[in-house]
Amino acid sequence: MERKKIGIGYEDYREFIDGNMYYVDKTLLIRDLLKTGEKVTLFTRPRRFGKTLALSMLRTFFEKELDRDGNVIDKLPYFQGKKIMDCGEDILSGMGKYPVIKLSLKSAKQPDFRSAFLMLRGQIIGEYKRHQYLMNSEKLNETEKIRFDNICKGDVKWDERMAGFSSEKEESRAFGLELVQYGDSLRILSELLEKHFGSKTIIFIDEYDVPLENAWHRGFYDEMVDFFRSLFESALKTNDALEFAVVTGCLRISRESIFTGLNHLDVNSILSSNFGEYFGFTPMETEEMLRAYGLGEKVDEVREWYDGYLFGEVEVYNPWSVIKYVREHESDPHRFAEPYWANTSSNDIVRELVVNADEKVREELNQLILGENIEKRIHEDITYGDIYESEDNLWSFLFFTGYLRKVSERREGRDIYLTMRIPNEEVAGIYSNHMVSWFDGVIKKADRKRLYGAIACHDTDGIADYVSGLLEQSISTFDSQEGFYHGFLTSLLYGFPAYRVQTNREEGIGRPDIVLYPNRPKDPAYLFEVKACKKFNQMEDGLNKALDQIRDRKYEEGVLNDGYAGCVSFGICFCRKSCIAGLFKDNDGK
Description:
Blueprint (H helix, E strand, L loop, with lengths): L12 H6 L9 H9 L3 E5 L6 H12 L26 H4 L7 E5 L8 H18 L11 H11 L1 H9 L5 H16 L1 H13 L3 E6 L3 H9 L2 H17 L4 E8 L15 E4 L14 H10 L6 H8 L2 E3 L2 E3 L2 H11 L18 H8 L3 H11 L4 E5 L12 H10 L4 E8 L2 E7 L3 H21 L3 H8 L3 H12 L10 H12 L5 E5 L10 E5 L6 E8 L6 H14 L2 H7 L5 E9 L2 E7 L6
Parallel strand pairs: 1-4, 1-5, 2-3, 3-4, 13-14
Antiparallel strand pairs: 6-7, 8-10, 9-10, 11-12, 12-13, 14-15
C-alpha cells in the first residue's frame, strides 16, 4: 500500500486532502465545538500543537464559499471518510452554511507599534479582498460598498496621504483615525457578510498573542493592548452579526488587559477537562502513524522523546516532533531521535529562568532535570508584563507553553497548586543545554589566576577550594557523570599561560584525562586524572584510584619520553559540587 505524503509545514486542511497527505483525524472538534454552544472560545496550547490546522479544518467545514463564477463550493469531498460524517444531520447541516472571517496575527512581529499595526492592517485588508465579491452584491447599498472599499484600499490611500502631511501632529492624528477604523473593521465585515448571505458570521483568529509577546519585548505593549481591546470588543462583544468565534494562542492573557467585558468568553487551556484530544496526537494516533510508515518498533523511543503532555485528562504527544520523526526515519529507521520541537524556537523563557535562578530555583531545576517533581502555584490569568514579576508567574508560563507537564493538582481556595515535571527527553534537553551553556558562561567569566597559581605551587587544597567554589554555582544534575567533570576541568585549564591543553592523548600505556604541555620544554608538564563518585564517603577511594592509575599506566614516563623536563601529576575526584585533589609523588603513588 502506497504511503501518503507527510505534510511538513502545511497548515491548510484542504492541502492535506487535495494532496492526499497523511492527516490525523481531528474533525470531531466540530461536533464538540457545536455541542458546547459557546459564543467565543479561546484555545490556549503550546506552539506547534496543531492550532492553525485545527482552525483551517473548522473554516473548511463551516464556510460558505463561492468560486469565481459565484457558485457555492461543495465541502462534502473534504470530509468524506472522516469521523465527523457519522455525527448526524444536526451537526452536518452546518457544513458550508456560514460566512467566515479568518485572521492570523502571527506576522505582526515588528520592531515598533506603527510597523506592527500596519502589518495587522495588511492582514485585515487581505481578508477584505478575499471577500471582494461584496462590491458586486445586490444586497449591499452604495454607502456600505464605499465603506468596504475604503478599508479594502486602505494601504494605497495611506501611502497617498503620507506624502501630503505637513506636520507630525497631522500625521499622528491621521494614524489615530486609522486605529479607530481598523479596530472596528472585523465587526463591519461580519455585518456586510451577514447581509449578503443571510447568515451570521463565524470569526477565526489565530495566534492572537504573538503580537502581544513581541510588543512586550519591544516596549510598546500598552499600545498594542489598546488596539487589541478595541478590535476584540468590536468583533466579539458588540457584534450582533456574530454566530460564534474561535481564538487561539499559546497563553491566556488576563481579561483585564485584552478581553475586557467579554463575559461570554470560554477559555480552554491545557487544564480544561474537554477538547484535550484535539491538539496533539493521542497514544493511539501516534502508534497508528508509526505503523503506517513501518516504524512500529519505534513506539518506545517516540514515547520517551515526545510523549508526556497531559491536556485535561488526555495524554498527548507533541505532534510536530512525531511528524518530523516519522518523516526523517521513514527512509532511515536507524537515525537517532532529535529535539525537533525544541529547535523551532529560541526557548528564551528557559534561558531566562536559568540565568536568573537563585540557589532555590537552581535546586528545583536540578530536581526537574533528574526526572523528579516540583509543586508550584499556577496562575491562568497573567500578562506578559507579569511573567518575570514573580517565580509563580514564570513557572506558570513554562507550564502553559509546554515546558512542564501536570502530574497532579490540588486547590486551596481559589489557588491552584500543580505537581509538575519535565514531559519528555526532548524538553529535558532544553533545560540541560541551557544549564550547560549558562555554566560555561560562569567558567568563562571566572578569574582563574588563583587556580593557575595553585597548580604551579602544587597546592592541592587550593585547587580543590577553587574548583569546588565554582561548582557551588552549578547544579547537581551531572552527579557521577565523569564526562561532565572532565569537560568542566578542561574548560578551566584553557588559558593557562604558556601552556596548551590536550585531552585523552596516549601517554605511557594509556590515555591520561588532561595534560598541560608547556611551550618551553624546560618547564614541567601538568597531568590530571579525573574520577567521579556518587557518595562523599567514596571520594578518598576515588582519589586513590586516580593516583594509582597514573602510576600503573606509567603516564609520567610517557610525558618524559616526549622530551619534557618534568611532569607534575594530580588526581582529582568529584562528587556533586565538591572535589578533592591529590599530588602524585613517587612510584608508590603516595
